UniProtKB/TrEMBL annotation:
This is ABC transporter permease subunit. The lineage of its organism: Bacteria, Bacillati, Actinomycetota, Actinomycetes, Kitasatosporales. InterPro entries: MetI-like, MetI-like_sf, UgpAE/MalFG_permease. It comes from the Bacteria. It is a multi-pass membrane protein. Belongs to the binding-protein-dependent transport system permease family. Its main location: membrane. Keywords: Cell membrane, Membrane, Transmembrane, Transmembrane helix, Transport. The chain crosses the membrane at residues 71-92, 104-123. The keyword Transport applies. Residues 63-277 form the ABC transmembrane type-1 domain.
Amino acid sequence: MALFWFAIPGLIVLLLFHYVPLLGNAIAFQDYQPYIGIMHSPWSGLDNFDVLFNGDDQFLRALVNTLQLTLIQVVFVFPAPILLALALNSLVSERIKKWVQNVLYLPHFLSWVVVVALFQQMLGNTGMLNLFLQAHDVGTWNIIGNPELFKSLLTSQVIWKDTGWGTILFLAALSRVDNDLYEAAAMDGASRLRQTWHVTLPALRGLVILLLILRLGDALSVGFEQILLQQGGVGLENSEVMDTYVYNHGLIGGDWGVSAAVGLVKGLVGVVLVLGANKVAHLFGEEGVYKS
């Protein structure tokens, strides 16, 4: 019973900051005016959802950019911790492995403000890279502020910042693999690559599926703070995503109802993706997030 008392503060925080704010979704169906509040703002039905039904240009641009970044991150960012964990697990020396892990974990604890500033100092027009190229009479390379390279820049920043931290779960799963399986595979003549394919990867399959399902639930969130900090250099056409659309039209533009409607739809899409992916996982014999 005493353990339940310890859980009460966490439950209160969860209730106040995650469930009570859900009541604010009523704004999506109102002509919301901040100075009169939710209780007195007139209801507008589905008028705020016209940007979804009628294809508002700014919304469609944000949607396309979001889907592109989501696809890029699933293809390149999601597998990165898995590959890094496999590489770390292959290290023989435990001392070297721990040292490398500690170094790789550090970027995760940096805020996006610091990460963006570091990349600007390295890759900006007057950054270390261009200063080096100028010193050797080589033309400069415009990376920061280049709209064509913006999505690649975002992806590289995410990989650098979070890949090391993402290996924790995979390394924990790999530590539970019985060494007898590797020895048996080696006795059967399996190479290191075959051992990885037939022993290591099957041990990670359940965890990979679980994390992929959870990632799909957050698929339309592709880095609000990271993108907002760099929008000014590339323009909205190339950088506007769903989260920044909600921010720019809600807090900045005062179009609260439309922003709430877009945010609500984004959340519903995430729920549908999680439920659908979890059902597919059950069809392949995996537990997924929950059992049916």
